[in-house]
Specification:
6-stranded parallel β-sheet; 344 residues; Rossmann fold; 16% strand; ADP-heptose-lipopolysaccharide heptosyltransferase activity; alpha/beta; LPS_LOS_Heptosyltrfase; single chain
């Protein structure tokens, strides 16, 4: 097995949770060439990953038949020995089959499984373990088929280097007019539409309850700027200073900025998982619904560097996704003592 294609062509957070899989593959098979099939919006992150040798761009749902045929031809040209579909759909299954990849591994779920040559039963819908561990189980199964021991890789999975982060901190300090010598707490109130999140009122209460010596930086992705400005106004009305960071030079630049944070707060969304991969201490807010629990979508932080909150038990099916049931004042009683190690 000298050329391996790994398919994870969905959202940013899902892709970040695949980094341990790329790391394990490359550490276990250092001579192999690993390619990633990703959408265009995660391509720059894929190029940042030290365990990915080649990046293949997958057309989105809006892609034409010609675009889809082109990516099949591109995959064929690599002559892959194996594919590992961390994300399995009928489209993805047919893609690797049409490309003629002889060994095709994926979870044994959905009708799509009939198009693979090797399947692993996982029952991901039970959310019995973190998503990244389900991904790793597929890689372990692949390595076992080769008779190759799996080499475990530990956090952080994104390592940018002290000098690069220091330069980014200097740049941001000038851009946002904030001090470099105090802790920066990033708060990302957007969700990208991928998960339930706190209300702006809850985020405002949270921010105003954080240690006063910290500089609060409100981050926003495309389409989230207006809500971030509203949150900034709410925070300032309560007498707490904060700054808005809603302009960057792309996803890698934004990732480098996240590396400057002492703490990162967000719902279950892409930026939270970028922060976790950097091992920036994270606080995440999750629904209680089984497919979206804090366990299933745990970020990649090392032990002790992540706190998770979700609605309390009870309230029926609707209560599981009602983020308004999270008591912020109660959460702060846990957050502030824990955070003291990171924002001293």
């Amino acid at each position: 097995m000298k050329k391996i294609l790994v398919v994870r062509n969905d959202k940013i957070g899902d892709f970040m949770l695949a980094w341990p899989s790329f790391a394990m593959l490359k550490a276990s098979l250092p001579e192999c060439r690993v390619a990633a099939l990703v959408p265009s919006y995660t391509a720059d992150l894929a190029r940042l990953c030290p365990w990915i040798d080649d990046v293949i761009i997958n057309p989105t749902k809006k892609g034409s038949n010609a675009d889809r045929a082109k990516v099949v031809d591109e995959i064929k040209s690599h002559r892959f020995d194996a594919s590992i579909n961390l994300f399995s759909t009928t489209y993805n299954a047919l893609l690797v089959r049409k490309a003629g990849i002889p060994y095709r591994l994926a979870p044994a779920t959905k009708l799509a499984q009939i198009f693979y040559t090797r399947r692993v039963r996982q029952r991901r819908s039970q959310s019995a373990k973190p998503e990244y561990q389900y991904n790793l189980d597929l890689v372990r199964s692949f390595l076992a088929d080769l008779g190759q021991p799996a080499v475990e890789v530990q956090p952080p999975y994104v390592a940018l280097g002290d000098e690069r982060v220091a330069l980014q901190r200097q740049k941001l300090a000038g851009q946002l007019s904030i001090g470099r010598g105090i802790p920066w707490v990033f708060v990302h109130a957007g969700s990208g539409g991928s998960a339930n999140n706190l209300s702006l009122g809850q985020y405002a209460e949270l921010i105003c309850g954080l240690p006063s010596h910290c500089e609060v930086v409100l981050t926003a992705g495309p389409g989230e700027e207006d809500n971030a400005r509203r949150l900034l106004s709410m925070v300032e009305e309560r007498g707490r200073h904060a700054v808005l960071y809603d302009k960057n030079e792309g996803l890698v630049d934004f990732t480098t900025s996240i590396a400057c944070a002492s703490l990162f707060f967000a719902g279950s969304t892409g930026p939270l998982h970028i922060a976790g991969a950097l091992d920036v201490p994270t606080v995440g807010f999750f629904p209680r619904r089984r497919s979206s629990t804090p366990l299933r979508w745990m970020p990649l932080n090392s032990e002790g560097r992540h706190l998770a909150f979700c609605p309390p038990e009870g309230g029926g099916v609707e209560g599981e996704t009602d983020m308004g049931r999270i008591d912020i004042s109660e959460a702060l009683l846990k957050i502030n003592p824990w955070a003291s190690d990171f924002v001293a």
